[in-house]
């Protein structure tokens, strides 16, 4: 089964922000090394209140998100409208807010363009969004993200699959890595191999600053090897500032390479004091235009040939998510459906009536339109802002 997930940074032109009162209140971009792409977007004007029908000032977003949830003193409810349909009320399902998690994921959608509008967002930032592509989704110019748990990554040697939360000083102080999983190894010789068709590739980690030590990692791209040394000492700024882990840490990037088939092997060469190599996700620029036209890599061809089989790059894929008609109910940290409301109250920035039918002083608006087709799964990852 072939699948691809498009990663959109919060700076994408597919996301627009606004304010329902048109009073000049704006979403703010904040920079930080803990953010994917180096920035996160949030509504500083959002009110600190629970959604009880009183007046309030909220942000709104469009699409599916993984990212920070608001503190428990803020409303944990949001309203979602997909393609103009009746909005439904849902919530972040975060047992210990605020934290960085995937706080909304849409149900599986048809292979066409979609717009998802999320309203009543308070104190939640947008860092990154993802879209699972359909067979004919245009992929030229996009960035594809591959979770460390994806079966296309082949692990060799001793690795541990970790599902715990990361911990870091900036508010919020904890959360889940991308895909809720990391792979870690402190065993020299352990490797991870990934074959792709593209023109660049980068490796990201949840980097551990919690104890002193070092790792040496070799990146073998086709026949070209490069070695990087990662060291945490008592002089390291992050160690002095009390960092435990930092998400979205770029370990290595290929830069621009020739478009076509490539194989990247990531190997832990050495380690001291129990320091580990932690893999969270890869991103690459595809050299194919759609999944339907994606060629099979050479290793797949050899395997299929030995089995007397042929592959179908357009075969449907399963996301592994059990979703109801209003959204998924089995994803850790994903929001769950509570009730439906009238979608007409959450469509445009000119609306001043909240989904609960009460007048709001100002609701921030963000509309993310999926200019490409496919299953929308747009997580926001970011830190809490005050």
Question: How would you explain this protein's 3D organization?
Answer:
The chain has about 375 residues and is mainly beta. Helices cover about 5% and strands about 40% of the residues. The protein has helices spanning about 235-240, 300-305; strands at about 5-10, 15-20, 30, 40, 55-60, 65-70, 75-80, 85-90, 100, 115-120, 130-135, 145, 155, 160, 165, 175, 180-185, 190-210, 215-220, 225-230, 245-255, 260-270, 275-280, 280-285, 325, 325-330, 335-340, 360-370, 375. Strands 12, 13, 18, 19, 20, 21, 22 and 24 form an 8-stranded antiparallel sheet that branches. Strands 2, 5, 7, 8, 10, 27 and 28 form a 7-stranded mixed sheet that branches. The protein is globular, with a radius of gyration of 21 Å. The N and C termini lie far apart (about 45 Å). The model is unreliable at about 50-65, about 300-370 and about 370-385 (pLDDT under 50).
Describe the protein's topology.
Layout: E1 5-9, E2 15-19, E3 28-31, E4 39-42, E5 57-61, E6 67-68, E7 77-82, E8 87-91, E9 100-101, E10 114-121, E11 128-133, E12 144-147, E13 153-156, E14 160-162, E15 166-167, E16 174-175, E17 182-185, E18 191-208, E19 213-221, E20 224-232, H1 237-240, E21 245-253, E22 260-272, E23 277-279, E24 281-286, H2 298-306, E25 323-324, E26 327-328, E27 336-341, E28 362-370, E29 374-376
Parallel strand pairs: 5-28
Antiparallel strand pairs: 1-11, 2-28, 3-4, 5-10, 6-9, 7-8, 7-10, 8-27, 10-28, 11-29, 12-24, 13-18, 14-17, 15-16, 17-23, 18-21, 18-22, 18-24, 19-20, 19-22, 25-26
């Amino acid at each position: 089964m072939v699948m691809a997930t498009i990663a959109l940074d919060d700076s994408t032109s597919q996301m627009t922000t606004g304010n329902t009162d048109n009073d000049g209140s704006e979403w703010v971009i904040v920079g930080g090394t803990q953010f994917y792409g180096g920035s996160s977007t949030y509504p500083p004007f959002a009110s600190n209140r629970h959604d009880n029908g009183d007046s309030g000032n909220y942000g709104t977003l469009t699409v599916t998100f993984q990212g920070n949830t608001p503190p428990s003193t803020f409303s944990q409810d949001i309203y979602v409208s997909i393609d103009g349909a009746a909005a439904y009320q849902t919530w972040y399902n975060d047992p210990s807010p605020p934290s960085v998690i995937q706080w909304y994921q849409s149900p599986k959608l048809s292979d066409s363009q979609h717009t998802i509008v999320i309203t009543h967002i308070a104190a939640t930032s947008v860092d990154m969004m993802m879209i699972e592509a359909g067979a004919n989704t245009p992929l030229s110019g996009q960035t594809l993200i591959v979770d460390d748990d994806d079966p296309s990554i082949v692990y060799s040697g001793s690795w541990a699959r970790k599902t715990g939360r990361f911990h870091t000083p900036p508010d919020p102080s904890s959360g889940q890595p991308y895909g809720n999983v990391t792979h870690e190894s402190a065993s020299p010789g352990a490797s991870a191999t990934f074959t792709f068709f593209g023109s660049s590739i980068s490796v990201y980690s949840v980097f551990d600053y919690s104890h002193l030590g070092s790792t040496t990692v070799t990146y073998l791209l086709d026949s070209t090897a490069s070695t990087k040394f990662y060291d945490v000492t008592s002089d390291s700024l992050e160690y002095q500032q009390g960092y435990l882990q930092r998400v979205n840490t770029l370990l290595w990037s290929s830069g621009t390479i020739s478009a076509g088939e490539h194989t990247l092997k990531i190997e832990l060469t050495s380690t001291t004091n129990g320091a580990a190599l932690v893999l969270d996700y890869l991103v690459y620029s595809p050299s194919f235009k759609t999944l339907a036209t994606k060629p099979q890599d050479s290793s797949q061809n050899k395997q299929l040939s030995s089995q007397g089989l042929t592959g179908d790059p357009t075969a449907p894929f399963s996301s592994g998510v059990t979703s109801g008609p209003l959204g998924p109910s089995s994803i850790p940290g994903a929001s769950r459906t509570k009730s439906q409301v009238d979608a007409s109250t959450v469509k445009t920035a000119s609306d001043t009536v909240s989904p609960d039918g009460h007048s709001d002083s100002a609701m921030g608006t963000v509309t993310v339109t999926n200019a490409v087709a496919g299953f929308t799964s747009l997580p926001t990852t970011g830190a809490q802002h005050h």
